[in-house]
Design brief:
The protein is of the alpha+beta class. The protein is built from 2 helices and 4 strands, in the order βαββαβ.
Length: 96
């Protein structure tokens, strides 16, 4: 049963190397990670801006952050965090 962070969505700036598939595999091997989804948002001559969604049981934000830095990336923002026993999807309201 989940006891901490179960989903985190990050906006990350990374160099072209490692490639996105290698980066996804590396992140998926961190403790507590069940899956990783990486979407390329923007690319320029030297870097890639990617959205990384990680899901699992009791994700360790510090370990994730350290791993991203180890691979030459930097976290621009934490765009979503889900914690607890159950994944709650955001709903659209009339104000949206």
């Amino acid at each position: 049963m989940a006891k901490g962070l179960i989903r985190i969505v990050l906006d990350i700036l990374k160099p072209h190397e490692p490639t996105i598939p290698s980066f996804a595999k590396f992140l998926s091997e961190l403790s507590g990670v069940d899956g990783v989804n990486i979407t390329l948002m923007e690319i320029d001559k030297e870097t890639e801006n990617v959205k990384v969604t990680m899901q699992g049981d009791d994700l360790d934000f510090q370990e994730i952050s350290d791993a991203i830095e180890q691979y030459g990336g930097s976290i621009h923002s934490v765009d979503e965090v889900v914690a607890g026993k159950k994944l709650i999807e955001e709903v659209t309201t009339p104000q949206d």
